[in-house]
Design a protein that fits this description.
By secondary structure, the chain is mainly alpha-helical. 54% of the residues lie in helices and 8% in strands. The protein has a three-stranded parallel β-sheet. It has a two-stranded parallel ribbon with strand order 4-5. Helix 3 packs across helix 12 and helix 9 packs antiparallel against helix 12. It is globular and about 75 Å long. It binds tryptophan. The site of tryptophan (TRP) has 13 residues, from strand 1, helix 7 and strand 4. The site of tryptophan has 13 residues, from strand 1, helix 7 and strand 4.
Length: 333
């Protein structure tokens, strides 16, 4: 709590290219939330390495994500924007929290099971420890709310459990965080398989629209999006999953309601509709991409943001860590 504001924490991994789903479901909401909360936005590079990364790409994507955050409207003067590995307290608290987390709990986590299946050649300890590091991220800042998508719900639950376990073992130390689920319509699905969430790492890149896609690519992908054999632009997720997904995208990118969008395309074919969705998305992405490119050319500025962000994050994080070390009996000098 600072200036009467609650604390909000979130992070994005600098892996793969972000999709319009990440923008609608996460980053765009961060921008709105920074007015009402004291915010920390991290670039989770320590989480990223739980799956093998190309080091040069990881470095590049870290800066790219920072530039994107700012290009989308995160204000580094208001919110602490920083890289996870720049704040040593994350790894330090993670170690302590490991001793308050059971192996069985971690083995049962859905994401661990999924990722173990997908990366069977590299089921490393970090992959299993991922939720504990995430708990450390959140708890270090005495976070009240964590805006997440449904796929991260279990991770926030575990962070709550660990916080309560520690608080009960000693005395109130951590704020017990709440997950903040984003509004309906936030879930953007794959354009080629609308039964699946649009993913950064989908097998077919044509099902995902990346924030880095140029106008032609965006329009081509929407043109190829699956619809159905009908011809009515109507929101009906059960029977018209493809069209409904496109309506959600259109609504999210234009600010028009679903009903307004349906009215706009009444009596017009799917071809027209898909083109309009593609254009709406491309037109919104263009200025963000331009600003991101401009920022990426100004490395001194970006480094300055990261230095400042890390210093601010460290101040809060170290306070919490010192409390923890004291409670568990680490001798202090
Ligand atoms: N695991 C999150 C994701 O992939 C990223 C993340 C890391 C995070 N630490 C966090 C999200 C803390 C919220 C809070 O989406």
């Amino acid at each position: 709590m600072k200036d009467g504001k609650k604390t909000l924490y979130s992070a994005v991994q600098p892996t793969n290219n972000l999709t319009i789903g990440n923008y609608i479901g996460a980053i765009r909401n961060f921008v709105a939330l920074q007015k009402d909360y004291d915010c920390y936005f991290a670039i989770a590079n320590m989480h990223a390495i739980t799956v093998r990364q190309n080091p040069a790409e990881l470095r590049q994507r870290t800066l790219s994500l920072l530039a994107l955050y700012i290009a989308c409207g995160l204000n580094p003067e208001k919110s602490a924007v920083y890289v996870q590995s720049h704040v040593p307290a994350h790894a330090e608290l993670c170690w302590v929290l490991n001793t308050f987390t059971y192996v069985g709990e971690m083995e049962r986590m859905t994401q661990f099971k999924d990722k173990s299946a997908r990366h069977a050649e590299n089921i490393n300890m970090g992959l299993m420890d991922y939720p504990v590091l995430m708990a450390a991220d959140i708890l270090l800042y005495q976070t009240d709310v964590v805006p997440v998508g449904l796929d991260q719900r279990q991770h926030v639950e575990i962070a709550r459990d660990i916080a309560q376990r520690f608080n009960n073992a000693f005395s109130p130390t951590f704020t017990v965080p709440e997950a903040l689920f984003m509004k309906v319509g936030a879930k953007i699905c794959d354009l080629l398989d609308p039964s699946k969430k649009m993913s950064k790492s989908a097998e077919n890149v044509n099902g995902s629209v990346f924030l880095s896609d140029d106008k032609d690519t965006v329009i081509r992908k929407f043109k190829r999006a699956v619809t159905d054999s009908g011809n009515e632009v109507k929101y009906d997720p059960e029977n018209k999953a493809g069209v409904s997904n496109l309506l959600s995208v259109y609504s999210a990118f234009t600010g028009k309601s679903i009903a307004e969008a349906e009215a706009e395309f009444a009596g017009r074919g799917y071809g027209d509709f898909k083109l309009a969705v593609g254009e709406a998305v491309a037109d919104k992405l263009a200025p963000v991409q331009a600003e991101q490119a401009r920022l990426l050319a100004d490395k001194d500025y970006l480094n300055g943001v990261l230095k400042d962000g890390a210093a601010r994050a460290c101040r809060t994080a170290e306070k919490t860590l010192a409390k923890v070390y004291k409670k568990i009996g680490f001798y202090q000098i």
